[in-house]
Structure formats: structure tokens, C-alpha cells
Amino acid sequence: MDKFVVRGGNPLLGTIKVSGAKNSALPCMAAAILTEGEVILENIPQVRDIETERKLLVSMGAEVELGYGRAQHRTSIKCAVLSDPVAKYEIVKTMRASSLVLGPLIARTGIARVAMPGGCAIGGRPIDLHIKGLEAMGATVTYDHGYLEARTPNNGSAPLKGAHIVFDKITVTGTEDLLMAATLAEGETLFENCAREPEVTDLAALLIAMGAKIEGAGTSTIRVQGVSSLHGARHKINPDRIEAGTFLVAGAITGGDLNVDCCDPSHLGALIAKLEQCGVKLTVGSDNVRVRSGGGILKASDISTEEYPGFPTDMQAQYMALATQTEGTTLVTENIFENRFMHVNELNRMGANITVNGRTATVRGKSDLQSAAVMCSDLRASASLVLAALVADGETILDRVYHLDRGYEHFEDKLRGVGAQIRRMGDVFGKNRRATDIAS
């Protein structure tokens, strides 16, 4: 099992490029199910979750080609024939986002059989809102031996029906899943209390390019006029706002001068505002953000995670690492997931002073972090431990970094390119391996 070895003390200097957004690429890959035509996606990140999605689509009968290097991170997907419209447990169990195939499968084939993906290290991500929405559109959903089976009206022979759907709570994957289903439904579907994340807008842009009629993506109300069929399209995936945010914190925590390039600063508003409150100096361009050490003391500033455009839950752990280096007390309140403080014990092992009471963590800084052997528990927690290790005294060893490989492309290579002392021990994952070998 791979490990990272990180020696702290180096400020990060130079330019680091952001990859495509995993959380945009996954639903866009699922959207290819909706058409017999070829869907070409560009700016696909080379991460494990993308390979898992490829395996899932191929298992259903799709033709999927993943290209990197000269192919500029492009994938070509053709679902001309879906011979086996089943999301099998042995694939689904490794990736929560695989539930996104439920909506497009039932819309395209009239029937979908999807293994229940179960829980997640950071907390439950219930699929009940997906089910309620499909039932409102006329589907019959049953549960049998760990699988959800959904059928359109008339036992799968008739299309889904447009409906008025109000989400009980804001859900990104629920919005995406039902949005895909609605594109081929008969009549109009009106969604309210929708997720507004850039990943939803990105998916809608692809669907519109495929011939869907969608209005309001990026707002809390989305209106879809169903069409009889969709066609192939070409689409470029958004830059990864969480990767960009992670690198902005890396530049800030190390007191460096780092240009985070190929990003979309308009997706980073809440984080940028919070970093500036901490005293971090930022210069925002059209597609880049430069973070510089102001030479002064970083100040504590509380955060509370919220749905977009609020402070993202996927940046909470990274921000907590930064909070250990600020003067004063920071309150970190997690409102999205109930179990997203697993990095706290590991940060405390490195000398942080963090206590947790319910959904709020209290971080008392500034702490002189020291090297230690720590364990990665999930994707973003792993990133926070790397950030802490970049400023810790001595050499930190991080175990189970396969979590990072799920969502960050060549993470250690990018950091090493701007001066970090970081190396991987164990089987190397990344650019020297064929895409088809990833996660095998």
C-alpha cells in the first residue's frame, strides 16, 4: 500500500496547474448513457474514480476510450448498445458517484438495476431523494438483495413522465441524477430547491449540447422540457475548484508565492474571501489566482460549511490544517456530513490543538507541528494531512494515500514541481502507468 513521505519547511514557489474536475467528469460520463451517439469529454482528470466509472460503463456494454498525454485527457464514450443495464456491486462499492447511472439508465432503457452503494467514510449519502424523484416521474422502484430496480411506466415500455419535484434538502447527486432522467421524460419537469454547484451547471451544459432543453441550471429552480432522443456531443470539463482550493491553501500555509493556474476563480469565492480574512495575499486573474506570503501573521477566522456558493465541505479539512497555523481560535462547523472530522486525531498527533464537540471543531493556534506517522481516512482528509506535513518539523509518513489518488491527479508530482519535499513509497500510480491499469 502506497505511502507519502513529506519533509516540511519549504515554501511553495512557482506555477501549479489545476486538472479537470472529477465531480464534473463523473456525471458527464454517466450522461453518455442517454444517447447512442458518441460523447467526447475533454479535460478529464487521471484519477482512480474516472477509471472506476469507465469500468462501470464498459460492464454495461459501452465502448469507452480513455486518452492521456497527447490525447489531452480526453475520453470517448459510445453507448450504442447497453447489453447489461446493471451497476454491479463489485464496481459500485468502490465509488459513491456510481449511483448517478440510475437516472440515465432508466430514462434510456426503461429499466435500471443498481447496487446500493452503502455508506461512506465521511457519512451517509442517502439515495432516497433520487428514488422519490423517479417515483414522482412514474417509475416503480423496488429493493431486492442489495439492488435497486427501477422501471418506467407499463413495466418499462413507456417513458418517464414530467413532474414537479421539490427536493426536501439540497442534493448535488440527486439534482444531477434526476436532471439526466428528465431530459428524456415526456413533458415538462420542474425542479425546485436544486443544488447550484458548478458541477451541476457543467453537466447541464453537456446535456444541452446533446440536444436537451434545460433552463435555470446554476439556480435553485431548473426547468426541463423532455425530448424524444439525444445525440452525441463534445464537451470540456470544468477545472477542479477543490483541487485549486487545496493548492491555494498549500501556498498560504507554507508562506510561499504560488500561482494556481488553469482554474476558474468565480467558483472559489467563499474560499478566497475566507483566505483574505486570514491575512493571505491573493491576486485574482481570469483563470488563475496567485497566493503570496505577506510576511505577516495569519489570523484565525471561523468557517461554517454550506451548499454552494457557501464554504465547501470538501475544503473543510484543508482549511483546518491552515487554521493550525493562524494566531487565535478558529471554529470549524461542519453542516453537510456528520462524520467529517476524522482528520482531527491525525492532526493532533502532529501537535495540533483541536477539540470536537458535535459538528464543531475548535482549533487553537498557532501550533508548532511535528512529523509523525499518520493515517489517511478519506480523500480530503488526506489532502489536509499533506498540507500539515508541508509545515511540520521533520519527516511525516502518510499511510493509505490511495484515497488521494481517487480525486487528485499526480498530487505529489505537482507539489514537488513547486518545491515541496514529497515522495511516494510503494507501487507508483500515475503518468507512467497505462490508464487501463489504474485501480486494477
Structural features, described:
With 440 residues, the protein is α/β, with parallel strands linked by helices. It folds into two domains: 3-19 and 239-437, UDP-n-acetylglucosamine1-carboxyvinyl-transferase, Chain (Alpha-beta prism), CATH 3.65.10; 22-234, Enolpyruvate transferase domain (UDP-n-acetylglucosamine1-carboxyvinyl-transferase, Chain), CATH 3.65.10. Helices cover 28% and strands 24% of the residues. A hairpin with a 6-residue loop joins strand 4 (63-67) and strand 5 (74-78). The radius of gyration is 22 Å and the shape is elongated.
Biggest β-sheet: strands ordered side by side in the sheet: 22-23-1-24
Give the C-level CATH assignment of the largest domain.
Answer: Alpha Beta
CATH superfamily of the largest domain: Enolpyruvate transferase domain
**Which second-level CATH architecture of the largest domain applies?**
Alpha-beta prism
Task: Return residue spans where pLDDT drops below 50 for at least 5 consecutive residues.
Answer: 119-124, 428-440
The number of domains is 2
The coarse silhouette is elongated
Helix count equals 14
* Rg value: 22 Å
Chain oligomer state: single chain
Helix-residue proportion: 25-40%
| N- and C-termini, Cα separation | 13 Å
Number of strands: 24
Largest beta sheet, briefly?
Answer: 4 strands, mixed
What is the structural class? alpha/beta
Share of residues in strands: 15-25%
